[in-house]
Amino acid sequence: MFEPIRQFEKHLAEHAGAPYAIMTDCCTHAIELCLRYEKPRNVAFTAFTYLSVPMTMHKLSLEYRYVSEEWIGEYQFHGTRIWDSARRLERGMYRPGQMQCLSFGYTKPLQIGHGGAILLDDQKAYDTLLRMRYDGRDITVSPWETQKTFSVGYHYRPTIEDAQAGLSLLHTIDEKPKYVNYPDLRHINIVG
């Protein structure tokens, strides 16, 4: 059942030059999982990004601040090893020691329509994030009901159809990132 997802992750990791890739249902959830794993107290990131990023900070009750930072392809969450690489997918792009979160939405380099992934080289983080992605499940245990102990997890798993689409399109991708004009989020208010 999970074989297309595993195959896509293997080919994606090879393409990007990362030891591991974990496919998720979207880039925002990839970022969220990394933040939950890393547990930073506060982060700084560009004010010029998509609205889901500060929404995730609010959801996680993380202190954050915006910085005036223009970017092309990816930017870092300062104070962490986490990158929002939603607009980048090139051969050999992986930064050793980091967690780079990809998007496969429309207008992104690999346009599946939705989905995301985490590129990383940390075996412990890889094992933990895999379980977090699948409701705390160990996917080698089947049926899942026979697993008796679960770590806290989230239902952020990708679909087999998205993995199959990624496999069919990945070999066609190798573009340089382009500048995208995002609004300055310092001019919005998030309430609630």
Give the SSE layout.
Elements lengths: L2 H14 L3 E5 L2 H12 L3 E5 L5 H8 L3 E5 L7 E2 L5 E3 L14 E5 L12 E5 L2 H11 L26 H11 L22
Parallel strand pairs: 2-3, 5-6
Antiparallel strand pairs: 1-7, 4-5, 6-7
Helix pairs in contact: 1-5
What does this entry look like structurally?
This protein has 192 residues and is α/β, with parallel strands linked by helices. It has a single domain, classed as 3-Layer(aba) Sandwich (Aspartate Aminotransferase, domain 2), CATH 3.40.640.10. Helix content is 29%, strand content 16%. It has helices spanning 3-16, 27-38, 52-59, 123-133, 160-170, and strands at 20-24, 42-46, 63-67, 75-76, 82-84, 99-103, 116-120. A hairpin with a 5-residue loop joins strand 4 (75-76) and strand 5. The chain is globular, with a radius of gyration of 16 Å. The chain starts with a helix and ends in a 22-residue tail after the last helix.
- Which CATH architecture would you pick? 3-Layer(aba) Sandwich
Note the run of SSEs as H and E.
HEHEHEEEEEHH
Strand content: 15-25%
Largest sheet: 5 strands, mixed
Coarse structural class: alpha/beta
Quick tags:
5-stranded mixed sheet; alpha/beta; 5 helices; Aspartate Aminotransferase, domain 2; 192 residues
Short description:
29% of the residues lie in helices and 16% in strands.
